Amino acid sequence: GRREVVIVAVNVGSIAYQTPAAGAAAHGTAGTFSRAPMGTNMNTLLRQMGASNPDGTRRVALWALSSTGLPKRDIPRALAAFASVGYLCEERHGGRGDRRSEIAGVMVCIDPRQLRFLNVGQRKQRHRVVRTGRILRVRLGIMGATADDDFDVMACYMPTRGAQRRGGQESSEASRQYTLAVWRSLATTTLPLAGQGRALVMGDLNAELGHSLRHRGRRASPSDTALAHLVDMGRVSRVHHESDWTYWRAGAGDPSTSVIDHILASDIMRPNIADPRTVDGIESGRNRHRALEAKVIWGSTGNEDDEGERLVDRVKVCHLEGPREHEAYEECKLRY
Q: Can you tell me the distance from the alpha carbon of 5 to that of 87, in angstroms, rounded to the nearest whole number?
């Protein structure tokens, strides 16, 4: 019969710790996490991670965490905290962003009673760093399933859209080139995996697809165009409906929403994805991300005739030329 595990992708808005003299520890509560917002995010995440199934396994088998923002000194403490609620994690940090406190960071945490890390790459390690602090690849096996059900995950926290300097770059043009280089790294890793097997791209991609852009009256940025390329040519599609916002930003006027967080599934794996939901995430401030939840199923997948109705419409491939290629691409897409 059908069996399933729950997967979640969420931007946690940094789970870094304050210094011992700051936050809650300064008020005689040593051993707790720091003051809001960062300590609150970590406490919320641990509370959600603690939810269990009737058989004692964790309710969520796989967490893809982006924007974890852990400095090197805090990583062992965070890994120990996740282990205390039953998770094994792989991580990569170090890509400093446009704010002094931002260190980017992605983590993949699994319940070892439901999933297991498999070796990837020539070095046969439990993870492969595609881009430091931005893209982490792992390969996972499902406990009780066969090797045919193994799948790859690219956990991502892509650079933000816009012309501002980020990632330690000295100019807006250098920042743009850095962003495109990160997207090329994701594409060159994802395309062969998705073309031949079961793969997921999970996390805050800081980019939107065409429906979301048109619905909100926004022009495509280079990151948006890169995401469209990945979907068009990578044999992957978005699992969740684009009508549900994933990021809420409070500004001087009305708040704005966008759909920049994604779970993309390869065509081969898509029949094994069920029940996608967009739910409350970790953050509770003025600017916050929602979490994306879905189930990976194996065994009997039910009525495959319904699968076509769940697939996101795929756009045709538009070839690019010229210096304004991302604008030309969007104009091309609008003709279909």
A: 14
Q: pLDDT at position 237, please?
A: 96
SS3 of residue 256 by DSSP: strand
Question: Greater confidence, 113 or 242?
Answer: 113
35, HSE (Cβ side, Cα atoms, 13 Å): 10
Q: How many CB atoms lie within 10 A of CB 313?
A: 11
Of 128, 86, 93, give the one whose Cα is nearest residue 12.
93
What is the distance between the alpha carbons of residues 41 and 289, in angstroms, rounded to a whole number?
Answer: 12
Indicate the residue type of 102.
Answer: E
Closest by CA position to 264, among listed 335, 330, 204:
204
Report DSSP letters for 29-74, one per residue: -TTS--STTHHHHHHHHHHHHT-B-TTSSBS-SEEEEE-----GGG
- Closest to 4 (Cα-Cα) out of 57, 48, 50: 57
Predicted local confidence at residue 14, as pLDDT: 87
Do residues 258 and 288 lie in contact, with contact meaning Cβ atoms separated by under 8 Å? no
Choice among 10-19, 94-103, 231-240, 285-294 with the minimum mean pLDDT = 94-103
165 vs 7: which has the higher pLDDT: 7
Place of tokens 């969520």: 60
Please state the pTM of the whole predicted model.
Answer: 0.82
Task: List Cβ neighbours of 92 (8 Å cut-off, separation of 6 or more).
Answer: 105, 106, 107, 127, 129, 132, 133, 136
d(CA 49, CA 239): 22
Q: Please list the alpha-helical segments (H only) found in the chain.
A: 38-49, 75-84, 172-196, 210-215, 222-233, 307-310, 325-334
**φ and ψ at 224, to 5 degrees?**
-60, -40
